[in-house]
């Protein structure tokens, strides 16, 4: 089994910058996530409004199709 060398001491300046960059990255990530979350919420709201309109149109089309089918069946029964 090989022996491991003693660990190298990392400069306090390097440690400071490592932790600073890590903290900056976390803060930036939180800010970015918040901004994208607001944008996505606005998109979901707009899609919900469009869904209501789309559902109404589909209901009308289904009713018309059902009425048309009933008329065709009545015509065939005569």
Automatic annotation (TrEMBL):
Keyword annotations of the record: Acetylation, ATP synthesis, CF(0), Coiled coil, Hydrogen ion transport, Ion transport, Membrane, Mitochondrion, Mitochondrion inner membrane, Transport
Pfam families: ATP-synt_E
Molecular function as annotated in GO: proton transmembrane transporter activity
Coiled-coil regions, chain positions: 36-63
Protein location: Mitochondrion inner membrane
Positions of transmembrane segments: none
GO cellular component: mitochondrial inner membrane; proton-transporting ATP synthase complex
GO BP annotations, alphabetical order: proton motive force-driven ATP synthesis
InterPro entries listed in its UniProt record: ATP_synth_F0_esu_mt (IPR008386)
UniProt family annotation: Belongs to the ATPase e subunit family.
Physiological role: Subunit e, of the mitochondrial membrane ATP synthase complex (F(1)F(0) ATP synthase or Complex V) that produces ATP from ADP in the presence of a proton gradient across the membrane which is generated by electron transport complexes of the respiratory chain. ATP synthase complex consist of a soluble F(1) head domain - the catalytic core - and a membrane F(1) domain - the membrane proton channel. These two domains are linked by a central stalk rotating inside the F(1) region and a stationary peripheral stalk.
Quaternary structure and interacting proteins, as annotated: F-type ATPases have 2 components, CF(1) - the catalytic core - and CF(0) - the membrane proton channel. CF(1) and CF(0) have multiple subunits.
Name of the protein in question: ATP synthase F(0) complex subunit e, mitochondrial
């Amino acid at each position: 089994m090989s022996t491991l060398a003693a660990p190298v001491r990392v400069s306090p300046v390097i440690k400071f910058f490592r932790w600073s960059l890590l903290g900056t990255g976390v803060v930036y990530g939180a800010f970015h996530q918040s901004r994208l979350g607001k944008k996505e919420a606005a998109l979901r709201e707009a899609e919900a409004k469009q869904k209501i309109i789309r559902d109404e149109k589909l209901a009308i089309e289904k009713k018309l199709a059902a009425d048309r089918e009933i008329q065709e069946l009545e015509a065939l029964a005569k």
